[in-house]
Amino acid sequence: MTAINAVTDLSLDGEVAVLTLNSPPVNALSLTVREGLFEGFKQALASSARAILLICDGPTFIAGADISNLADMLKDPSIEDIQKLMDGADRPVVAAIHGTALGGGLEIALCANFRVAVPSAKLGLPEVNLGLLPGAGGTQRLPRALGPQKALEMITSGKPMRAPEALALGLVDELAAEDALRADALTFARKVLAEARPLVRLRNREDKVAAFRGKPELFEAFRASTAKNFRGQLAPGWIVECVEAAVEKPFEDGLALEKQRFFQAAMSPQSAARRYYFFAERNAQKVPGAPAETAARKIARVGVIGAGAMGGGIAMNFANIGVPVTIIEMKPEALAHGLSVIRGNYERSRGARPEETEKRMSLLQGSLDMADLKDCDLVIEAVFENLEVKKQVFGKLDQACKPGAVLASNTSFLNLNEIAAATGRPQDVIGLHFFSPAQVMPLLEIVRGDKTSPETLATAIELGKRIRKTTVISRVGPGFIANRVASPRLAEINSFLLEGLPPARVDKVLYEFGFPMGPFAMLDLVGLDVIADPPGQETIRSRMVAAGRRGQKGGGGFYDYDAQRNPQPSPAADSIIEDFRAAAGAAIKEVSDEEILERSLYLEVNEGAKVLEEGIAIRASDIDVAMINGYGWPVDHGGPMYYADQIGLDKVVAKLKEFELKYGPQYRPAPRLERLAAEGQKFTAKP
Length: 687
Ligand code: T1G
What we know:
The protein is α/β, with parallel strands linked by helices. The protein has 28 helices and 20 strands. The strands form 4 sheets. It has an 8-stranded mixed β-sheet, with helices on both faces. A hairpin with a 2-residue loop joins strand 2 and strand 3. Helix 10 runs antiparallel to helix 11 (251-267), helix 12 crosses helix 25 (620-631) and helix 20 packs across helix 24. It binds (2S,3S)-3-hydroxy-2-methylbutanoyl-COA. (2S,3S)-3-hydroxy-2-methylbutanoyl-COA is lined by residues 25-26, 28, 60, 63-68, 79, 100, 102-104, 107, 126-127, 130, 132, 134-136, 138, 279, 282.
């Protein structure tokens, strides 16, 4: 075995040269990795070997370019230099794939003549998630392997394909045994040699694309059907353009277009924001000061207290991954109702198969007796938001649960430390704040009480991963992170109405910024009656509720709704607003769209600064992760804290001061924000 450099080595196994890459954690294509691969292929080609096998050590094949340092892609050797060696090889090149072959990793594998993969492997071009398109020939080679339709779906969705499907579609030539990739791939390479199989080169392959030449209909239909989904994003449109070029143009021309679009995408603020978010999401799992080796406890059985909408949704998360759940209610009718709602949710979910529903339902066991929680490794309380009630429940849990069980509360604003104090084991108590509907919303806030042990915290973090939530860690404080940061913006909508701004105009501004919907549409969706007003304050929203307008679920809200739940302007709502405004004697103001946006967003930035100052959030990027996953903050802008950094904190502070004079003290800049601005710093400079 010869070391090529620190991360690659070359060995000869009979007639096959084996080029092995090992660059933890994910074999990303850093300069060192590219040097190793380039030199390795050169030496293999200069050797007497009759075939070349590319394989990776560690948990995965190459997961793509090094996102932490994209500019480094400009240094030679480039991915393309490696691909040229592979394309020009005079003997078979086989890629052996395990883990994930993503982005540039798959693009390299696409230059091999053959691909062998273990069944658990996944192959994908996820660049679109980073605001990018494949930049190493993926848009040209994948359509030549799979045809344009499948390639469009795969590259614009970014979703990886599992090896068995890849085999069925011809993207993979053979499956290897899960634990014998190297041996099976070597056998395959020898078979290729023995049979003198012709070398497949995707760049030269025409059969999958030729049939679509001169037929723009496929692309037009795809553009039309995805327009809403890809609203505001640059990369998807460029991907469609490049795949179309793969069909219409010679390979080299398509490649040149891809390169041009790739660099445009890479330079875009959108892509910068999405790459920032990629690392923000991962950093949110890191707890400063917690020993890295803190072991998570095993969670094999879960209990949920409360079969309401929240408890039921929480239970579904565990049934979905095969974990049995005991659901506790006080009354048999409530239990039966809760279970039937869960069943209904499963039956209505897209692509639901009856046997799947039955399997999941069979994991859910209802009970009226807390003693039935004795075998649970984790119990999540989801009862009425009342401190006394919750303290009582935790007192009982303390009696019912086995030692070492994690006791969690789904409270969204109560003091977790007080809840924990109702038990004799506060170290095992933690907050697991799911967002409604809990089976759908991606965010899980993990609330760390003053006495929560590192082990309990590590257990919650791992659990979040298992149920595929995006987790953020919060300290105890009113509203934790996401609800707290969103609250001043939502409170301010009353002022907007008093200034005479129509709900539809405010909603349009925020929708166009990239939110899935504006604040009024959102209130109508969640229900106008579920949000509490600030004490002693009557709002237009509470007037609406008093008039029977509870939102989409009943009577309409700020809008009226037709049978398809499309919002329509509502004269009834408008007159409630107008009466309230007139009675309050509020004057109509001229407010520009820009100012609506700035007021909405900067209130969040300012609240985020307070959340940081108070130590509720560990780092600014955690706030961004929470807002993107909890409130639909557009990831193309990176979240409120990152967004403020891009605007410039001094500009944000100046605006807030202006708004404070014009609209009131709710805009007073937070000390942390003012200080960072004065020092010329950013929130998110250091991850
Ligand atoms: N570059 C740099 N670091 C990366 C990385 C990457 N591509 N992928 C992962 N990491 C780090 C990550 O930050 C974490 O670090 C550790 O690896 C483990 O990751 C030319 C332009 C591979 C499925 O988008 O989807 O190719 O936090 O915690 O759950 O067209 O990572 O430990 O310090 O996520 O096992 C396209 C991105 C790039 C793949 C593994 N590729 N990665 O998941 O572990 S663009 C991607 C993932 C491109 C070409 C272009 C996942 C994973 P730390 P992890 P995991």
